[in-house]
Design brief:
alpha+beta; Aminopeptidase; 8-stranded mixed beta sheet; globular; binds coenzyme A
């Protein structure tokens, strides 16, 4: 689905435009994913090389499918004429679990701790409520203090510890599991 475009202010006074990623922006979306995954592969679920294997056509089709879907979306953040952050919210298809969604997000290092994560998250939650989602899940590595601070700030509750769930730089690392129940 497409979400309404929004302009927000960062902590340093710059403006960011938040909007749906459209299929014709696939190349720029990929560029952001490559940069953020190279910088933050320790915190994310795809290795840094993964995005080099995705073509612009494949990404464009993925974004077109997202746009056509009813309860899934990707929001990208534009600052200084570039995409510097993104958040994806994906619900499941089967009717009995359609009210659940999983959330992932990434912001380039130069734009983190700027308030952008909070704006992206709040925009995602507003839209999630509007389309009737009731529950959002995510996991975060136990050492990702910025992610944990953001998720707890907006009300996610820690519900578990996933021991040794990921292998990063040759070491097994743990993740916390979080959920947010959206009130009517
Ligand atoms: C995690 C991430 C999304 C957070 O976004 P952000 O733009 O940095 O978040 P914000 O600037 O809105 O900060 C949110 C809160 O966390 C706090 N915070 C930011 N960085 C922090 C850190 N390193 N340690 C502790 N708290 C931190 C902020 O102070 C803020 O709280 P406040 O509003 O009370 O001041 C972003 O840093 C990121 O994408 N990192 C790399 C990829 C990643 O980790 N993705 C998430 C995977 S689960």
């Amino acid at each position: 689905m497409k979400i309404a475009q929004k302009i927000v202010k960062l902590k340093d006074g710059r403006s960011a435009t938040l909007k749906s990623a459209s299929p014709d922006e696939a190349e720029l979306v990929l560029q952001h994913l490559k940069i953020s995954h190279k910088e933050s592969y320790r915190n994310l679920n795809q290795g840094s090389a993964h995005w080099d294997t995705v073509s612009v056509e494949e990404e464009s089709k993925f974004l077109a499918d997202l746009e056509a879907g009813k309860n899934r979306f990707m929001i990208v953040a534009w600052v200084d004429g570039k995409i510097v952050g993104g958040l994806g919210l994906f619900s499941q298809a089967a009717e009995f679990v359609r009210h659940n969604a999983t959330l992932g997000m990434s912001i380039q290092n130069a734009y983190s701790n700027s308030g952008l994560g909070t704006h992206l998250m709040n925009t995602a939650l507003e839209n999630a409520k509007q389309i009737g989602l009731r529950r959002i899940d995510l996991t975060v590595r136990t050492y990702n203090t910025a992610g944990i601070a953001l998720y707890e700030k907006v009300g996610f509750q820690r519900i578990g510890l996933l021991k040794e769930i990921a292998l990063i730089d040759g070491q097994y690392v743990d993740e916390y599991s979080y959920q947010l129940l959206l009130k009517d």
